[in-house]
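Hi U.,

Before I forget, here's the chain from the pilot set. I'm dumping it here mostly so it's searchable later in email.
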Amino acid sequence: MTTLAPPSAPVRNAGPRRLFTGPPQDPRWARPAFWAVLVLAAALYAWNLSSVTGNTFYNAAVYSGTQSWKAFFFGALDAGSFITVDKPPFALWVMGLSARVFGYGTWQLLLPMAAVGVGSVALLYRMVKRDFGVVAATIAALALTLTPITVAITRDTNPDPVLVFLMLLGAAALMKAVRTGRLMPLVWSGVAIGFAFNTKMMQAYVVLPAFFLVYLWAAHASLGRRIRNLAVGTVALVVSSAWWMVVVDLVPASQRPYIGGSTDNTVWDLVIGYNGFGRIFGASSSVGSQGNGASFGGEAGLYRMFNEIMGGQISWLIPFALVALVGGLALRGRAPRTDAQRAALVLWGGWFVLHYLTFALAEGTFHPYYVTAMAPGVAALAGIGGVMLEWGRGWVLPGAVAASAAWAVVLLERVSGSGTLYTVAEVVVGVAGAVAVVGLVAGRFLKRRRLIGVAALAAAVALLAGPAAYSVSAATTASTNGTNPTAGPSTGGGMGGGGAMGGGQRPGGGTSSGGAAKTAGSAKTGAGGQMGGGTQVTSEMITYLKKNQDGATWLVAVATDQTASSIILESGEPVISMGGWSGTDEAMTLAKLKALVKSGELHYLVISGDGGQSTNTEIATWVKKNGTAVSDYSGLYRLDASDVG
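Structure:
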């Protein structure tokens, strides 16, 4: 059996100069190529950030956290801490600290996202290089950098870039524990995944089966010691995952915000329901699931990653990654139990397969940007396969390149009418793919290593030209869809947008230092736009509310998070979302409303009625009966202590 020789053992850098030249055993091109990839990643992720809207839902929560440490800790949507967002707050903390240091604005929120995106590329490079050398590492890093959905989501304020970075930190610590057999790296791996859990809950756990399998099988330690270490690492994982949830659920409900997205005002319910099984099975607790998620990423099923919506976002290198995984495992089949290359293949293969099945079969809410978490597995396998498959049978690598290049042509043909960029990319893929396949086959038969090298370069161009076109589009096209960001031409499958007021809007009026505000609609429709029942939340209404706030904590109470977040960003004042993201949360009760009005903490409420976006019927009836309608603004009511019986 032909085997792939492991790369040379790493040596300690001899001074700061090695930071730029790399270890002496590396090729001279390796370190400059690494820095070039990082510069490319930084350019794609940070280009013209002032044009990016971001998700105003999270933007408002970050802003509120800069106004109140209580809101900061709980991840509250409003500075008055009435209701939380529907995710744990770690990513909000990262953006919030940046905003507290540099001031609130577009680039202040997005800079940490770009930084962790570049950090993820560097981490993947380092991990692949250790086991498979600089060629594989460079391909993997470039593939991750150019994954279209990764570019799109890293230029947004959704928490996913932070999630991916923390998962990669956990993977790096895990592989160190596997190589050394020591306990502490495994503990730190558990801590990293725990922080990832406090970024996006159960999605952080998708990789855990692969983590456990790799350590239990391949670690340099006896079976008893491996089991003991896994037990200790699991304790670290549980503690680092659960601490925020336990603290929040121990705080009396009257002294903290309502847990947005939950059915019983507990974080535990949010973990198991809305952000847990509800995402997978489409349970009723998964509020706003849009059936099986077809409105966002297409029908659930094994083909989902290749459909019209998802194909251009993530699937470019999946055929190559599958061949690389199967071929690599076959090549390392008889290696010793502790073989580092096979362990890495199991890790990255498990990362890819587990995410693929989870996302493809999920019946609940599914956004295309979720699959950025799968990208490191695909990218790592692409890099590994580019090196390992050359050592297998002569037809495997050309076959993998041909299959992936053909699929790239199919994807580009789908959008051939969307612009010159995609037409040119299609031609490049076709020509480079043909050169690569012919060159790889001919080079093997003719025993010409230089010909194989040229063909390999052509293969890289063929496989990365398509995603590069999508990525450049994502980085250079101003996007206002912060709720569901995607790369490349519109497929008509996305929904949402972060609300009318863009992420660059400075709360209270004006624009941030990042640049001009992005606003949907005219000033007349204002922050909230059209609500159910014909109600308009306009800029004029917000001006009226601020003028007549009369010392209340909250400017106004509205039905949903979307409307509340937009008003928060325009007014700079706390706003109550009574029903959470879709209007169905039971955050506001009639008794609570009466108490807020009686204490003078709330004077105004907007009544709306449109299915799930409607105001609670009991509350709406009481307000209409006891409040005073503001004649200039349909649906707006004034409430005072004297109105409470």
